[in-house]
Write a structure and sequence with these properties.
- This protein is α/β, with parallel strands linked by helices.
- It folds into three domains: 194 residues, 2-enoyl-CoA Hydratase, Chain A, domain 1 (Alpha-Beta Complex), CATH 3.90.226.10; 109 residues, no CATH class; 71 residues, OB fold (Dihydrolipoamide Acetyltransferase, E2P) (Beta Barrel).
- Helices cover 48% and strands 18% of the residues.
- The strands form five sheets. It has a six-stranded parallel β-sheet with strand order 13-5-3-2-1-14. The chain has a five-stranded mixed barrel with strand order 15-16-17-19-18. Strands 4-6-12 form a three-stranded mixed β-sheet.
- A hairpin with a 7-residue loop joins strand 7 and strand 8.
- Helix 3 packs parallel to helix 4 and helix 11 packs parallel to helix 15.
């Protein structure tokens, strides 16, 4: 019996060894496959440079849509920014955290002038992975405000609580130490390196986190994070950020980053386009004021010389550029456009249906002003000093544009007919001979009740034809369209007043 077992074992031993070797090799391949991320053939780089403004959010939103259309696997956000506007920074971080069609990687190179500071740190925390050069910087995101007496002032605790909660939730979502994210905003928060004695997990926690932890007895508090001591906002270089678990890895060049991410080929760089430059220029306060002035003056010219169409086309172009730049700049929505169109409608009712100036005209002007102001800012009611300054700037631009318009309107009202180009658009006054004939005819032949036809729009002044005679007349009441049959209602000196002829 034993002899038979030994012979059988010897006979099958090579086969068993071969099967065992194959099983071990297969398991090894599976382990390697799990440890090594799959190569990705598509990636794009989007640069986040300079101060963060509402325009920056809209810009990144457009670039992310472009990357999504390219069906990429990785979006690399290359950051070199000192931060900027608070709400825009938080919105950018939220937008990046909600990207589910690609992996988002924040890359802060050592060559960056600023790194990822203040609001730019929020954007980095919104990404799935943070890769930094060893000398790059991240953090220092204290919320400050400015006024005339103190250019930079740390905001009160009540105002920064919302920011702290948002940034802590973002860190938890991405599996980063919430205490380090909070220490970027709270300068008096001391953070410690801790270790779980049961699991061996190492992370960073604040004292209040340790006290509130359900397994507080399992955490061993180590040395404090030096960057959080002394009442400073937390800021760390790339090497330290990796050590503390805030960043995933270090990369000193794009090539090293591509190798870490197993990117094949050179990723596409989504660059700043001519449209982005145009939108940025049109959002400048001086250019905004110029657009408003030209648009208002063009409307005035159209009212002074109706029927030509150049004024209304120019005004339409100016206001279209204004709202287009605000839409792409991230400060306007459909509400502002609806308010603007409603304001024009009320003014139209006031001018053409209810002559004079009353409730409709005042409402129209208020709606127009509100739409132009709201389209220039990303909020309705200011809650911070920075928002108050933005509102003051918007009001200043609108007020300056209105003053310039009134000055130009007075100038055009006096010299319109003598200007080289615009003079051809205005109704020419009659020559001395024509005026003498007209006045003689008016004095000798015209009488109340005589009928004729409006030769131009009467708003209220204009020209009308009575038989073979052309006279200056005034609409007595509502404005009168060109070609409308009219009749004389009264004559006061050389002024002839008319109204639409009554149908018999």
């Amino acid at each position: 019996m034993w002899r038979f077992c030994v012979l059988t074992l010897r006979r099958h031993l090579p086969l068993a060894a071969l099967l065992l070797f194959a099983a071990l090799a297969l398991e090894g391949q599976q382990v390697l496959a799990q440890d090594r991320p799959l190569s990705r053939n598509t990636a794009v780089i989007i640069r986040l440079d300079g101060a963060i403004m509402p325009f920056t959010y809209a810009y990144l939103e457009r670039k992310l849509d472009e990357a999504k259309d390219d069906t990429v696997d990785i979006v690399i956000l290359e950051i070199d920014s000192p931060g900027g506007e608070l709400n825009a920074s938080l919105d950018i971080a939220k937008m990046l955290s909600e990207v589910d069609w690609a992996e988002t990687v924040a890359y802060v190179p050592s060559t960056a002038m600023y790194g990822a500071l203040s609001g730019a740190a929020f954007a980095a925390l919104g990404c799935e992975r943070i890769v930094m050069g060893k000398r790059a910087a991240i953090g220092d995101a204290g919320v400050i405000e400015s006024d005339g007496n103190n250019p930079f002032r740390y905001v009160p605790e009540k105002q920064r609580t919302h920011v702290t909660n948002r940034i802590v939730e973002l860190a938890k979502l991405r599996g980063r130490p919430p205490a380090l994210a909070e220490a970027m905003v709270e300068k008096d928060l001391d953070v410690f390196q801790v270790r779980n004695t049961k699991t061996g997990q190492e992370t960073c926690m604040s004292q209040k986190e340790l006290d509130a932890a359900k397994d507080a007895e399992d955490w061993e508090k180590g040395k404090p994070v030096q960057e959080t001591l002394g009442g400073n906002f937390f800021e760390a270089n790339g090497e330290r950020a990796v050590e503390l678990g805030l960043a995933e890895s270090n990369a000193e060049s794009r090539e090293e980053l591509f190798e870490q991410l197993n990117i094949v080929g050179t990723p596409k760089i989504i660059k700043w386009s001519a449209v982005d430059t145009t939108v940025l220029v049109l959002n400048h306060p001086l250019v905004t004021a110029l657009l408003l002035i030209i648009g208002l003056v063009a409307l005035y010219i159209e009212m002074s010389s109706p029927g030509i169409g150049m004024g209304i086309l120019t005004a339409g172009l100016c206001f279209a550029l204004f709202f287009w730049s605000r839409f792409l700049g991230g400060t306007a929505n459909w509400l502002e456009l609806v308010l603007f169109l409603a304001g024009l409608a009320f003014l139209g009712v006031e001018l053409f249906v209810l002559p004079g100036f009353g409730i409709a005209g005042l409402t129209g002007m208020l709606l127009l002003g509100a739409s132009l102001i709201l389209a220039s800012q990303g909020f309705v009611i200011p809650h911070t000093r920075d928002e108050m300054f933005t509102l003051i700037r918007s009001l200043s631009v609108l007020t300056g544009a209105m003053l310039a318009f009134f000055i130009m309107a007075l100038f055009l009202n006096r010299y319109f007919g003598s200007l080289p180009i615009l003079g051809h658009l205005a109704l020419k006054p009659p020559t001395d001979g024509e005026a003498a004939l007209e006045h003689t005819a008016a004095e000798q032949a015209l009488a109340v009740g005589d009928t004729g036809r409006a030769d131009s729009a009467l708003r209220p002044a204009g020209r009308a034809r009575f038989g073979h005679r052309m006279l200056d007349v005034m609409a007595d009441g509502d404005f009168i369209a060109p070609g409308t049959p009219i009749q004389i209602t009264r004559i006061s000196g050389r002024r002839v007043f008319v109204e639409p002829a009554k149908e018999e």
